[in-house]
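Example record

One chain of 183 residues, shown exactly as stored in the release files.
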Amino acid sequence: MPRRQTNHSPVNSNNYQRVVTYYIYYIIKPLKLKIMKKLPFLPILLFAIAAIIGISCKKDKDKTPACATDVASISGSYKFTAYTYKETPTSPEQDWLPTVFPDPCEKDDILSLNANGNYIITDAGIVCSPAGGDSGTWSLSGNTMNIDGDLTTIESFDCKTLVLVNNDVAVTGDKLKITLTKQ
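Predicted structure tokens for this chain:
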């Protein structure tokens, strides 16, 4: 009996399994091996390219202009957002906002620091009965703010949030911090 020749071409074959086997063993596997042998560092190369692109496209966070602590920058309308007190440097901070502004109608008042040196507290939002409000003068010298003769220190100002600090308010070593948010 003559020896049967094996034809590796799927063209003459009607058997589906032979066709699939042919493509897997004779086309796909050798192709995959050739690619992996030629590009063993492809994943590392792609990661390095992505990292370089990510770093070079990072936005500078320092492009925000510095906010000056001067009358022109500080002037504006503010809402009282925090009022805290510490009796000693090691004592816990106490929330005094409900103590200073016990009525809900006072918590939404607006402090307007005008560039001409006057301030006005407006009874905004929920109106108190009788309607509240106040006015007076303020000035600035470096980081010290004078409000109706009371001196306070500007701890920080980022053009949106103004933090004022008074030391030795009730006892020596205590600290009262008032946080105002520009509206």
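Notes: The CA atoms of residues 37 and 159 lie 59 Å apart.
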